[in-house]
Amino acid sequence: MKKLVLVLVLLIASFGFAAESAGDERYAFLLKPLSNEYWQTMKDGVAQWGRENNVIINVYAVDSEENFTGQLSQLEDIVRKEYSGIGVAPLSPVNLINGIVSANRRGIPVTNVDERVDFDQLRAAGGHMISNYTTDNISVGRTGGEFIVRNIPRGSKAAIIQGTGGNLTSRQRSEGAETAMRAAGIEVVAIQPADWDRMRAMDVATNIMQAHPDLRAFYCANDTMALGVLQAVINAGRQDQIIVVGTDAVPGAVESVRAGGLAATVGQDPVGIGIACLEDLIRANRSGFTFDPAREIPVRYIDSFLVARDGMR
Q1: Are residues 27 and 40 in the same domain?
Q2: Mean pLDDT over all residues of the chain?
Q3: Which residues, 6 or more positions from 237, have their beta carbon under 8 angstroms from its beta carbon?
Q4: How would you class 99 by CB atoms within 10 Å of its CB: exposed for 0-12, middle for 13-18, buried for 19 or more?
Q5: In the structure, what pLDDT confidence band is assigned to residue 103 with cuts at 50, 70 and 90?
Q6: Does residue 232 surpass a pLDDT of 60?
Q7: What total number of domains does the chain contain?
Q8: Cα dihedral sign, 95-24-40-137
C-alpha cells in the first residue's frame, strides 16, 4: 500500500504547472454532488492547487444526480459571471450543452471534467470544448470484473450495480465488468441501477440476494453504492460468501478495504483529472482562446489503479 501511495503522489506531482496570476483571471468548476467523495476530493484538490499557484478558483456543485435543469441553470449563471474558463462535469451527456454554447459565444473556454458530454450533439448545437480529461471507464470496469474472476470460482454468479440510466460512465463501467466476467465463465444474473445512491444500492442488493441466494459477488459502478451494497451483504449475514468491489477509491472505500469490508475498489485520480483540466483552461485563456466548433475535442485518459484487500489478487 505504501508503494501505491507513492505512485499516486508522483502521478499528481507530474501535473506540475508554472502558474503565475495574470490580472483578473478567475476560473470556475461545476461538479456533480459533493455527497460523493469522488467529487469532494476533486474540489479539495483543485482548490488547494489554486491557493498554491495563486489562481482564483470557484467550485460549484449540483445538489443531486437527478437535477439536470438545476445544473444547467447553475452553468448559465456561471457564464454570466464572465470567468476566464469553466470546467464542467455534466449529470448527463446532453444537459449542459446549451450552457456550454453560451460560454463559447462569450469567448470563454470550457473543458469537460471527467463525465463525458455528447460531442456530436454539442457540435450540432454549435458548441465546442477545449478538452476532456477522464478515466477509461471500460478499462475501469474490466479491472473490477477481472478481480472478481480471480477471486470466485468459475461458474459462480455475480451482479452489477449501475449508476443512473443512460449515464455513459455507468454504462461503460458495467460493460467492462460484464464482458470480463462472462468471458471467464461467471454468470452475471442481474444488472440494475441504483442512481449512484447508497441507500438505493442497499435496497437493490437486498432484492438481488433474495432472488439469487447463491450469489458470490457484486461489482458497483461507484464506491458510494458499493458501501451500501456491503451493508446489505452484512445485514444478510453473507459477508463471508459475497465479495463487493467498488469504483473510485474514495477515502471511505479505501478504509473499508483495509478494514476487511469491501474486497477491492478500482481507483481513479480525481485530483489529477481536475488539475489537468484547469491547466488546459489556463493555457487556453493565456494563449488567446479562439472558438472553433469544427476543431477536434481531444480526449485524454488518466490511469486507474486497484486497491485490494490483503490476501486477494
Answers
A1: yes
A2: 91
A3: none
A4: buried
A5: very high
A6: yes
A7: 2
A8: positive
Answer positive or negative: Cα dihedral of 117, 118, 121, 124.
positive
| Local structure of 304: helix, strand or coil | coil
Closest to 59 (Cα-Cα) out of 282, 281, 274, 269: 274
Q: What is the pTM of this model?
A: 0.80
Residue 63 belongs to domain spanning: 2-135+270-301
Beta-carbon contacts of 52 under 8 Å, excluding residues fewer than 6 positions away, are none
**Amino acid type, 257:** V
Output the nine-digit C-alpha cell for 99.
Answer: 450552457
Identify any residues that bridge with 111 across adjacent strands, giving them in sequence order.
Answer: 87
Q: Give the CA distances from residue 40 to residues 16, 35, 251, 261, in Å, rounded to whole numbers and listed in that order.
A: 21, 7, 11, 22
Please give the grid coordinates belonging to residue 67: 437535477
Q: DSSP character for 117? A: P
Domain identity same for 154 and 261: yes
Query: How many residues are there in the chain?
Result: 313
CB 177 within 8 A of CB 226: no
- Per-residue pLDDT at 3 exceeds 90: no
Q: What is the dihedral of CA 49, 41, 176, 117, to 10 degrees?
A: -60
- Bridge partners of residue 31, in order along the sequence: 61
312 inside domain: no
Nearest to 133 by CA among 302, 307, 265, 306: 302
pLDDT tens sequence across 26-76:
999 999 999 998 999 999 999 999 999 999 999 999 999 999 999 999 999
Q: How far apart are CA 263 and CA 246, in angstroms?
A: 8
Residue 237 placed within a domain: yes
In this structure, the answer to whether residues 129 and 206 fall within a common structural domain is no
Verify that 158 and 36 share a domain, yes or no: no
Q: Which residues pair with 157 in a beta bridge?
A: 187, 215
Residue 80 maps to a domain:
yes
Of 1-15, 80-94, 223-237, 251-265, the one with minimum mean pLDDT is: 1-15
* Distant-in-sequence, close-in-space partners of 271: CB < 8 Å, separation ≥ 6: 12, 41, 42, 44, 45, 46, 49
What is the mean pLDDT of the segment spanning 6-29? 53
Residues 12 and 127 in one domain: yes
